[in-house]
Amino acid sequence: MMDILEIQSILPHRYPFLLVDRIVEIEPGRRIVGLKNVTINEEFFQGHFPGKPIMPGVLVIEAMAQVGGLLLLREIPDREKKLVYFMGIDEARFRKPVLPGDQLRFELEVLKRKASTCKLQGKAFVDGNLVAEAIILSAMVDR
Q: Does the predicted TM-score (pTM) go above 0.70?
């Protein structure tokens, strides 16, 4: 439903911090599904960990939050004047390591939404297996 060019037209993030490659499902205001292709070329693998590359959990959660930000910003008419700030993480759990060659599938659902804040339930999967989950809190602010 959204390729990388459309993602870049909505999110301000750029390499090496843009962690979403594609959006495959969207239910406006309710749910979104996004993909991140994890490659050995990612800069963080140089130091995390040499000889045993594992995607840092904090970046898995950041990628999840970026997918959630796309859901929230996509419907805003003046989105170029807005940012979605990551405000908090609750109940984060990491089930399995994410490795080079994996494709992360993020599924996020809106739990609660107010004028400028939102609470999302996020889950990350690799090959259908749950690898991470968290409740993400965010706020929309002016740039």
A: yes
